[in-house]
Amino acid sequence: MSHKVFRLWCNHQTYEFPLDTFKQVSKKCAALVKSKDYQGTINHPVSEEAFEAFSLACQLKDFQTTQTNAFELLDLAQEWGIKSLETFVTNYINAKELKRPEEGDHLAPLLMHLEDDNYDQINDVVGVSKNFDQYLLDDRLLELHPETIYQIYHHAETRGINQEYFAEFLMKLFESDPQKAVPLTLLTNFDRLTQDQIENIFQCSEMHEEFIGYFIAASMSTLNAKARRDLDEMEERHLKEIDDIREAIKNHRQESLDRIQDQFNLSIDELKALIEKQKGEIQELKDLKMRQQMKISDADKRFQKQALVIEKEIQKQRDLISAKQAVIRQRRRQIADELKNQFNAVRYEVGEQLREVEFNDQQRSSDVGCRYPPQAEELTAESQNLTDRGIVLTEKVQTYDKWVKTVVASFGAKIVHDQLRFDHFLRNTSRRFELFNVEPKLWDLDADQVRNAEEVVTRLEKKINTSCPISVRQQIEMSVNVMKQFASVFSGKQMD
Question: Where are the coiled-coil regions (predicted)?
């Protein structure tokens, strides 16, 4: 099982410290953890203010050092081997020039209950250890049992002991009661003793007489005391652990019940909220379905209505197109008949006029030749001139005939153009001029002539805003009138 905390028993309570942090700052904690012990005990009372500062310091958090807790904090730092805290508090005490407050005489109670085995002397032992250097100069300390001095030395060792004072105390004890001094020699730093003091110790007869037996008894006594203390601490620790386990089980059970209850309540609330939400969604879906059905119904009605309107409009357009096509066919027949009649009449009149001109010229030439023989050559020349003029007139007539064909081609292109004006997207009109290549040819026209004429018609339509079939007839009449005027010029007769 992995340990994440270090438990410290103090003031009849258990406190938990982060294991990794505490063992880094405290040498004593590191030693306990190394021996697989994850809990410790402070056997003497500690003020709440001092322990709170000590706890924060052990967790590397900000803490407050005051004049009232400085010395207690220093004692705790020395007891648990926290060198950085000890240095900090020592500097604080020196800076403030603080003096350790006078404590009560803890040595007197120890002497009073010297033979009382039931007396709990731990607080007095700790109290003496705090000022052990001063008590070493007190002759009353010579009256204590070696075991008690061992305990005091053990608690004072973490704070530091003046070995010179201890050596002087030991030599006094050799002078007054060598039997008590013998076991304490194990605590003595012989480097601090003079050669004479060392000789006095080893030349002491009691040292040799009681050395083996006493040290065996002292060791057994020490082991017994230590075992008793360890048993007491273990019992106290086990009781505390049992209480902690009982409390942890109780808390865990309560937390589990609370968590299950909270989860149950949360699940119930979530289910209720989900039910309400789904009710709202179902109602929204019903409303949406109703609105969609109404929209579909309205759209269907509008579609049916629009379909009827469109069908009526299509039928109307079909009827209108049929009527226009009938009108166009009738107009085309009328234009063709009129053009044919007028063209034949013009051709006939022009031919008659030409024949009459030729006959009159011959007659006049013959008459002139008979009447005026001397002028025959002159008249002949004039006749030749008239003949040439007739040839020129013939060429002009051919030109007018070509122009008339162009006009006729334009009429044909216009008719086809108007006939298929509304059929651009209904059928293919790319072969609309092929009918002019079918024998017998209409008006003696071919498809290329009509196609070229359509380009002229298209350019003309682009130059005007409106288009009327009557304008085509006016153009034909204008062309006919022009031809009649030319014919009148050459024939000398006024043509109607």
Answer: 217-302
